[in-house]
Description:
By secondary structure, this protein is mostly helical. Helices cover 61% and strands 0% of the residues. The chain is built from seven helices and no strands. It has helices at residues 4-18, 24-35, 41-46, 61-77, 82-101, 139-145, 149-185. Helix 1 packs antiparallel against helix 2. The chain starts with a helix and ends with a helix. The structure holds zinc ion. Zinc ion (ZN) is lined by residues 1, 37-38, 59, 96, 100. The site of zinc ion has 6 residues, from helix 5.
Amino acid sequence: MPSPIAHSLAGTATWAAMDRRRRIALFVLAVLVADLPDLDFLPGLLVGDANRFHHAFSHSLGALVVVSLAAAGVARLLGANVRAALSISVVAYASHLLLDMLAVDTRAPYGIPALWPLSNAYFLSPVSFFLDVRRSADPSRFWISLFSNHNLHAVLREVVILGGILLGILLARRSCKSTEPAIRGSD
Ligand SMILES: [Zn+2]
């Protein structure tokens, strides 16, 4: 699995690509939703086995639909843009599933149940762009085990790949903005 830094960068890239108006609430939503599936570590930490519930149904199409509809519902209650909240949630959640499938996974069952509830099969790309984040299943060592040379290397790789994609999106957005008046002016 990639680190929360990778998922937060993917959430930020989603927001940068989809929200022309740069709304802070949508940025927070995109980053939260992009990281949300990995909250499945919490029940495991409570029962003494951090990995017990990881890569289960929070990493699936079914969870994507539930979370995105919930985000749209909250946006509606708050009088915010429902369509923007729904679309950003769908893409940010999907980015988490995609990144996890593109990462090294050394624990069975390998991959994620991406299509649950349509299928219980686990999916993992044969080609890995990201390293795994090594951690202890023992809750007393879980947090300290995250600080290792291997995990530092994993995070640096994530920053290079996803930071590069984010930078590309920001530069493309900026060049679109700078050409808009010229295009309008030529109408
Ligand atoms: Zn995950």
